[in-house]
């Protein structure tokens, strides 16, 4: 447990950078939702709604919904961890930018249609954990770049690998927990 805490302290800069990337793209999504709501609504109807319909079509129970959400979110998380690491975090930045923009835009449009309170109920319970997982995974994907390029000391790949594993596993647990919350809690607010 001590190494987990040390890892989060040691990698706080990467986590903060990942968080800021998400927040800035979320703000861009909010602005886009305010000024280009109709165009974004068409995009949502055409692509994002189809994604959710595919996830939900076989989910006849909260348990099956949990598995469908987990499968979808774990795919995204594994892309962040694997492809993100192979590209030294570039793909992870792209995923954060895309997800942040979509969250901001969808939340803005949803708040216009429903209410801010209802929108927050549909996003926050699971979103806190899901977004945290993607941020932590993105930070993990950049550990080797930071260790090799930005470290003032000689790179210690064994320490970088251990830190990568700690963050990757913590993020994976958050993805599972977020899917559980989304299936069993958030879905009840959607009814």
TrEMBL record:
Cited PROSITE patterns: PROKAR_LIPOPROTEIN
Segments passing through the bilayer: 14-36, 76-109, 121-144, 164-185
InterPro entries on file: SpoIIM-like
Family annotation (Pfam families): SpoIIM
Top-level division of the source organism's lineage: Bacteria
Keywords in alphabetical order: Membrane, Transmembrane, Transmembrane helix
Signal peptide range in chain numbering: none
PANTHER family, per database record: SLR1478 PROTEIN
The name this protein goes by in its record: Stage II sporulation protein M
Lineage of producing organism: Bacteria, Bacillati, Bacillota, Bacillota incertae sedis, Caldicellulosiruptorales
């Amino acid at each position: 447990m001590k190494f987990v805490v040390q890892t989060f302290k040691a990698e706080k800069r990467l986590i903060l950078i990942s968080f800021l990337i998400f927040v800035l793209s979320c703000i861009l999504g909010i602005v886009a939702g305010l000024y280009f709501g109709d165009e974004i609504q068409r995009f949502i109807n055409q692509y994002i709604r189809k994604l959710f319909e595919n996830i939900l079509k076989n989910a006849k129970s909260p348990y099956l919904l949990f598995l469908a959400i987990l499968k979808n979110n774990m795919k995204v998380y594994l892309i962040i961890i694997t492809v993100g690491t192979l590209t030294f975090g570039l793909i992870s930045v792209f995923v954060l930018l895309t997800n942040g923009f979509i969250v901001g835009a969808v939340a803005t449009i949803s708040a216009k249609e429903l209410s801010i309170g209802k929108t927050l109920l549909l996003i926050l319970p699971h979103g806190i954990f899901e977004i945290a997982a993607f941020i932590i995974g993105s930070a993990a994907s950049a550990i080797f770049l930071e260790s090799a390029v930005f470290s003032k000391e000689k790179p210690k790949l064994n320490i970088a690998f251990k830190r990568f594993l700690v963050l990757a596993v913590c993020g994976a647990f958050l993805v599972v927990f977020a899917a559980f919350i989304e299936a069993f809690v958030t879905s009840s607010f959607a009814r």
